[in-house]
Amino acid sequence: MTGFGTAFRLAFRRNRMFYLWWVLSLSVLLPLTVTKYHDLVPAGQEGQLVLAQLVSNPTMRAILGPAFDLSTAGGFTFWRVGTFTAAAVGMMAALGVIRATRAEEEDGRVELVRAGAVSPAAPLAAGIALGLLACTVLGLASALMMAAATPGVAGAIATGLGLMLTGAMFVGVGAVWAQVFPSARTARVWSLGIVLGGLYLARAMVDAPASTPTLDAWRWAMPLDWAALARPYASERWWVFLLPLGVTVILVALAFWLESVRDVGAGLRAASRGAATAAPSLSGAVGLSWRLSRVSIIGWTVGILITAVSMGALSTTVDSAFTDQPQILDMLRKLGGGTQVIRDAFFSAMLAIMATIVTVAGIMLLSRMRSEENDGHSEVMLATATTRWRYALSLLAPAVLLPVVLLVASGVLLPVLQAQQDGSSAVIGTITTASLALIPGIVLVMGFAMLLVGWLPRWYGLAWVVIGWSMVASWVLALFNPPDWLIRLQPWGFLPHLPSDPMRWGAFSLELGLGLAMVVAGLVGFRRRDIAGK
Amino acid sequence: MTTTAIEISNLVKRFGSTTALDGLTMSVPTGQVHGFLGPNGAGKSTTIRVLLGLLRADSGSARLLGGDPWRDAASLHRRLAYVPGDVNLWPNLTGGEAIDIIGRARGGLDKAKRAMLIERFDLDPTKKGRAYSKGNRQKVALVAALASDVELLLLDEPTSGLDPLMEKVFSDVIVSERKDNTTVLLSSHILSEVEQLCDHVSIIREGQIVETGTLDQLRHLHRTRLSATVPDPSVLAALPGVYGLATEGGRTTFEADDDAMSGVLAALARSGATGVTATPPSLEELFLSHYDTHASEKALV
What we know:
The structure holds 2 protein chains of 2 kinds.
Chain A: H1 4-27, H2 29-34, H3 37-40, H4 44-56, H5 58-64, H6 73-100, H7 102-106, H8 109-114, H9 122-149, H10 153-180, H11 184-207, H12 213-219, H13 226-229, H14 242-260, H15 284-313, H16 318-322, H17 326-335, H18 339-374, H19 377-382, H20 388-413, H21 416-422, H22 426-436, H23 439-455, H24 461-475, H25 484-488, H26 505-528
Helix pairs in contact in A: 1-6, 1-9, 5-11, 6-9, 6-10, 6-11, 9-10, 10-11, 10-14, 11-15, 15-18, 15-20, 18-20, 18-23, 18-24, 20-22, 20-23, 20-26, 23-24, 23-26
Chain B: E1 4-15, E2 18-29, E3 33-37, H1 44-51, E4 59-64, H2 73-77, E5 80-83, H3 95-106, H4 111-120, H5 134-146, E6 152-156, H6 164-179, E7 183-188, H7 191-197, E8 200-205, E9 208-214, H8 215-220, E10 224-229, H9 234-237, E11 242-248, E12 251-256, H10 261-270, E13 274-279, H11 283-300
Parallel strand pairs in B: 3-7, 3-8, 5-6, 6-7
Antiparallel strand pairs in B: 1-2, 1-4, 8-9, 10-12, 10-13, 11-12
Helix pairs in contact in B: 3-5, 4-5
């Protein structure tokens, strides 16, 4: 392929930091967990009980995936963080390949490369090759570190292969969507929001209930379970890796074929025409903001509603999950709550996850303020009779309101099926109240994001760091027995998690006030600063 | 009604360690079509963006239509329209939608004028933003700006990317705006366009206005180039205000100061010169003389 070398070096140069950070942070996750195994799972009878309790908990299975042999450090580690890490590798791979191909093309840089003596497919091949290389390096690094950290070389190799091939599939997914859509943003939404998010949700639905032959069969249709189904550290089944390998080959071939039948800069469909005049609703900053964000708003709403109802359905399986675990039922009864305690903990945990996820929607919506300014659109709008306040609010209001509304909607919808089973709607009231108590966390993060927009727009990425940190803090950090204040040091850490916690008005109002103050300070900054042009 | 549309004095704007505007002073009376000339990076766009209240000046003052461009931004913007130098449209909105959004955000646009402009500029308003070529994006921005009845037009290199036919349409539209007493600030480095459209010109260099006036006044400061067949060129050498005398192949060429012109012409007539041509300095020469001398000064330092 003429020019592949040049295209690959260019892609490498432009994306090396992106991949470096992803690979570094993801490859240490499993080895770090392994070193904590003996703290988490005590030796002997006590450890057995801890494990049995973990595995029989549908919440854990929904979040973490199927468990096989948890008696070894390696097997436990793969269950505890393996499937989650594999999905994160998929996220890296899809984002990376879109970044190296469609995003470059959208900015007109692929045109420059293709005008040189390179074969038409070279830029795509370079983006795919770089993504596969990153997945391979990540898999290799994880395998080496696991082999060094815990016995079982075969398990370490299977772990590395699982991460690498799950990533490889998403190199394919990203490459295909990057051919279909002319905009990198749309390709990202389809790769992560619809394919990765959808597959993770489907996986959770299949993995959470107690095992049945039908569900076990369905599990084979879940690509994000394949790494676990190869059973690292639990008598490895190597042939399972043929599945992700096959999917990767098919998707990559599909991407190359799609690339060959479309024009540079275009998607698959010819650019459609639209209205010659703007609809009456499309008037001023508010109409524009809605028009720019409506697809994201509708997409997020549908996605969150489906997620809330389906994750909520898992609570109804709590009882059946414990029927074959009499010791645990007994222990819970002694604690005085029966399965009710587990159910409350389940809803609390789900709401905390939902709060983080819906805030991602808010940060994405507010990032419009950055992209609109960089693209020179803010300049055009602010050269009209639109005041800075009005302009900023037109983009800020949906970014704060959407996550708040979606969180409360989750609070209503998560327990719907439980209420049906109980024959009483009491649980809906309880969980909806619990969702209201988490709102200040959203306001705090969005306030911080607005503060960045107003004063340090180039540092907007810090808002993503806050969200990334709160995910790490709630998903991973708890494993390492860190001091309590460190676990709490995140937007939802100090808020009361009802109904398990009592209501704490102090924390609630303090955080809400702080968030609102940052929103106002951010708006003031935006009012005062220079607006960048194109 | 103020008689001065734009009044800037001693404006300074810094970006970090670079000084984009370094004590810029200029004024544009109401109803004037004012050319704003300068090479890339001289500070034209920065000046316009300060006038739009997008950038905050570090010192100095600017008045726009009698108001403060920073404090009164939104209300002033009802009375003006702006065409940015680098037009970038919303990729998934059509050109027609973009025109309407910008127009409505300004406080409404004249539908008949919008239709007329779309036709004259031969623009397809149903295409999506990402599908337009550079020239067509420029047309969208021009229609959006010109379709409103405003007192002031701030145009930042408005014809970049337009083909010659469309440049002509643009010129015609500006000429009719001038008849309606609209003030126009036209930043450009296309000299013929400025020469054709503008009454007044300001030349900006490194954030300062280095020359301003009517085209005639500016030309006055510069020499006319003459060429003739002169039997005895030495009669010219003795005259005051004659420079660069040279004879080649029987043709004598030289430059003369405007106030020495009558003496020069009389001397030419007396000496029996034939085939006399006189070329007034073009804007191009004015421009080059400013930037060339500056470049060579720099080279010496």
